[in-house]
Amino acid sequence: MLSIEALKEYGANTEAGLVRCMGSEAFYLRMVGMILKDPAFDKLFAAVENGDVKEGFEAAHALKGSVGNLELTPILEPVCTLTEIFRAGNPADPALVEEVRTAFERLKSLVEE
Amino acid sequence: MLKNHERFFTAAGKRLILIVDDELVNREILSFMLQDKFDVITAADGKEALDIIRDKLSLLSLVLTDIMMPEMDGFELLDAMKADASLRRIPVIVLTSDRQAEVKSLSNGASDFIAKPYNQPEVILARIQKTIELAEDQGIIQSTERDPLTGLLNREFFFKYVEQFDLHHPGASMDAVEIDINHFRLINEIYGWAYGDKVLNRMGTTLVKKAQSSGGIVGRKDADKFLFYAPHDTDYEDFLKELTAQMGVGNENARMHIRLGIFSNADAEPHIELRFDRAKMAGDHIKNDYSRQISYYDQELFSKELFDSQLMDDFERGLKEKQFEVWYQPKFDVKGDKPRLSSAECLIRWRHPKFGMVSPGVFIPLFERSGLIQRLDRYVWEEAARQVAQWRDSYGFTLPVSVNVSRIDMYAPDFVEFFTELMKREKLSPETYFIEITESAYTQDSDQMAAMVTALRDQGFKVEMDDFGSGYSSLNMLANLPIDFIKMDMQFVRSMDVNKKSLRMIELILDIASYLQLPVIAEGVETEQQVKVLKELGCYIIQGYYFSKPLPAAEFEKFIKEAKENA
After folding, report:
1. Interface residue of B19, B23, B99, B122 to substitute, partner A, most A CBs within 10 Å
2. A66 to B33: CB separation less than 8 angstroms, yes or no
């Protein structure tokens, strides 16, 4: 079961995330579970693979908003940097993409635990 | 009848809000935040939103929309709502994580924006509440004299007090001053809404103190705009310093750029609102000039105001008396050995009885701002069709012509019908009537434009993309756009002799055009050498001074006669 404690340990700014969720832990955790199914992740990874900067920007930008709302810092930070890289028309930094993937997988295993 | 504030409630007794965002998590969080106070419905893109808005029109109090979405984005949604009179009353708040998008959304008609990640729920709720109230209050006469935030007179009562002041102080020499904080919305956004209110409040207090010591009346016009009816002063530098010094409000980094627009000795002008319009005009004059903070209404602005308003006043008469003339500039097909007249572009000229020939560069922007451009464009379309029909009747030769279309024309519900009716009336074939639409119109609102252009072409009209290369068409967009001709931006031709890059650009445009199988028109062609090079590169339709400048109809006839003889 995912818990606030586990998310805190994961590196999320749960305090800010909870404020946005009107203090409801259950709702916050439900949203964290929901974001794992966000198609924008797959879109981002596919875009990086295909070298599609426009798609990459759209996906990173979308994630920046939603991941930002949940304050999932380990994903948010590389996603923000990627957004700006794509916005400037540049190809993705593989290290950053890997960072997103790892943070995403880590979160997934937390939820599945 | 329902009172204003009682309208727009759903069965649950709450106001209805639509949230538009392609990210499910964002929709869920915002819905969760709002569900206690509002009824909430959601949509995942602009298209879906528009359907819902039309469906729930009578109940909907507010739309909250994301910008970047598939299908139809937030800007397009704003445009669509603005273009439809029945949807315009619904306020829109934009949800965005981009600074640039904030400013753009406000200028595109959004009432406010909410930054992502979302602020404190209380702040969001307060902004939503305020936007809804503002929208609902529009049109209701304010029953109070005072602005609740600053305690100053509101605009309406301010003017009444100025009137009273004049009655009690005959002969007093007074200045009309508008005080404005540059980009105040950004201050609100960067330092928070509460801080912004503090700044406005401080401005109010400072102005009241000033008025108490020097005399005069102060009021708040709206948002960050304040009015000061002040005893005449020749130097406002100290006043500006005083104001600026007060504006830090405990945050030294928040540097305020205050602007003063001043109409000196305003009491000589009997119309009170006009006094402050002029102060505003003076202030607006330096809006983008950060080196100046004080601007006076002077002879130059007066002349401009007078000239502009005279042109606006003369518009009707100009139309009626046919002072507006359609001139024709020929386009020649140079593919064969001998250039052949292929068509002509119709251009507007104003033979003003008092000012002589007024440049379209002067009156077109003015008419665009005031919306008169639509009537002028239609006048040109009609005149041109009538002239072509007359030439056909006298010479048995139908000259294909092209007319210009402004972006705003395409929002008229009878846009296409107007052309088809015109063709019927003058017994012309739409294949000989070309419509020029500038590239920038396509890029600003590509869906609407594509729909209109398709509708025109379905009726048989030919469409030219004007000024190609000056805007930002993507190749992808270009491949999918329904057009018949590309008209290269004049700048390429103008600099082709001196600039190798321009020549390369022309080659590139011709390559793209040949791939898309679209003929290219070059305009601004002035020399034989340019014609030769363009022809070698495969551009065969040439317009420009090399063949002829634009000519009044009577003078243009020589080309018709010539073409008729050669036919």
Report:
1. B23
2. no
Task: Provide the CA B143 distance to its chain's centre, in angstroms.
Answer: 33
Can you tell me the mean pLDDT for B177-181?
Answer: 95
pLDDT at residue B473, rounded to an integer:
65
pLDDT at B426: 96
Of B23, B32, B121, the CB nearest to A66: B23
Q: What is the CATH number of the domain that holds A45?
A: 1.20.120
Q: Where are the domains of chain B?
A: 4-137, 153-297, 307-566
Residue A83 lies in domain:
4-112
Number of domains in chain A: 1
Chain B contacts of A20, Cβ < 8 Å? 29, 33, 117-118, 121
Q: Select the CATH number that applies to the domain covering B4-137 from these four: 3.40.50.2300, 3.20.20.140, 3.30.450.20, 3.40.640.10.
A: 3.40.50.2300
Mean pLDDT, residues A62-83: 95
Residue B16 has pLDDT above 80, yes or no: yes
pLDDT in tens, B499-542: 888 889 899 889 988 988 999 999 999 999 999 999 999 999 99
ipTM: 0.94
- Tokens of residue B54, six digits: 């039309």
Tokens standing for A103? 């943070």
How large a percentage of chain A has pLDDT more than 70? 100
Alpha helices by DSSP H, listed for B88-120, are 99-107
Query: Could you please report the per-residue DSSP string of chain A?
Result: ---HHHHHHHT--HHHHHHHTTT-HHHHHHHHHHHTT-HHHHHHHHHHHHT-HHHHHHHHHHHHHHHHHHT-HHHHHHHHHHHHHHHTTPPPPHHHHHHHHHHHHHHHHHHH-
Q: What kind of fold does domain B153-297 have according to CATH? A: Alpha-Beta Plaits (3.30.70)
The reply to whether the predicted model has a pTM over 0.80 is no
Strands B433-438, B401-405: parallel, antiparallel or unpaired by DSSP? parallel
Q: So what's the pLDDT on residue B50? A: 93
CATH architecture of B307-566: Alpha-Beta Barrel (3.20)
